[in-house]
Amino acid sequence: MKSWKTLTPDVTQLVPVHFSPGRGGNRVSMVVIHHNAGNLSVEECYRTWLTREASAHFQVESSGRVGQLVKLSDTAWHAGDWGINTRSIGIEIANCAGAAEGWPVSDAAVVTAARLTAAICAYFKLGEPKSGVNVRYHSDFYSTACPGQLAPGKPLNKKFMAEAKRFYRELTMPEPKHLRPDYGKLAFEQLAGYGRTPQGKPSFSGWEQLGGHTVVDALAIIGQTLGIPGFGLKTARKSEK
To answer: Radius of gyration of the chain from Cα atoms?
Structure first.
């Protein structure tokens, strides 16, 4: 992903068909998880959905590469339930081997899909990912084995949900106040010095390394010393009381 915060994928390749514009006035309330039953790339999903009446918002490849194929504001055809489609984001996840191996999913795809799920929950303000609540599965709405090993009770579900919850907390953790500097104050102090009057107002104290001058006054003195026309201290700045 290029950005988890803005849900910006590695690649965008929007399908022109087999989705519905808008969401019929509904808001997103869940993520629905699918597997490919195949090891598909974003581009292969795109070509498949040009001819097959299905789509999903995102495809997660076995490498962890993420592609978007339907806009978040539009309804993808993925859950087999129209009402759920209008209220959900569909994520397709590639399998790294076939049916004989039980349709496994690579570690990279599990982790990336879990983080994408968490990022969607954060983006749409759905709360921490919870299986069966804001994280649902294709088999919840349609008679299918999808999403295979990612479904509840299957080998990869606990790992998937644990990473989704962990990453959600990381994404939504408030930034400590000491990491949120007042850039305006910092810029002013760099120019005028960090001194304050007893009333807490700037005193234009300047900097010791500039001989007690502000940056502007120090620059004026340098220009005057070099003989640059117009440079020089005109009047002494008085401290604000």
So the answer is: 28
Burial 39-67 (b: 16+ CB within 10 A, else e): bbbbeebbebbeeeebbbbbbbbbebbbb
CA proximity to 29, closest of 84, 92, 91, 93: 84
**3-class DSSP assignment, residue 91:** strand
Going by C-beta distance under 8 Å and a sequence separation of 6 or more, which residues neighbour residue 107? Answer: none
Spatial strand order in the sheet of 30-35: 11-12, 66-68, 58-60, 88-93, 30-35, 135-137
Alpha helices, H only, the chain: 42-51, 82-86, 107-123, 157-172, 183-192, 215-225
Beta bridge partners of 33: 91, 137
**pLDDT of 119-176, one tens digit each?**
999 999 999 999 999 999 999 999 999 999 999 999 999 999 999 999 999 999 986 7
Structure tokens at 241: 């009381």
Residue type for 172, please? T
Q: Cβ neighbours of residue 81 under 8 Å, at least 6 residues apart?
A: 141, 142
What pTM did the predictor assign?
0.74
**Domains present along the chain, CATH in parentheses:** 11-172 (3.40.80.10), 178-225 (no CATH)
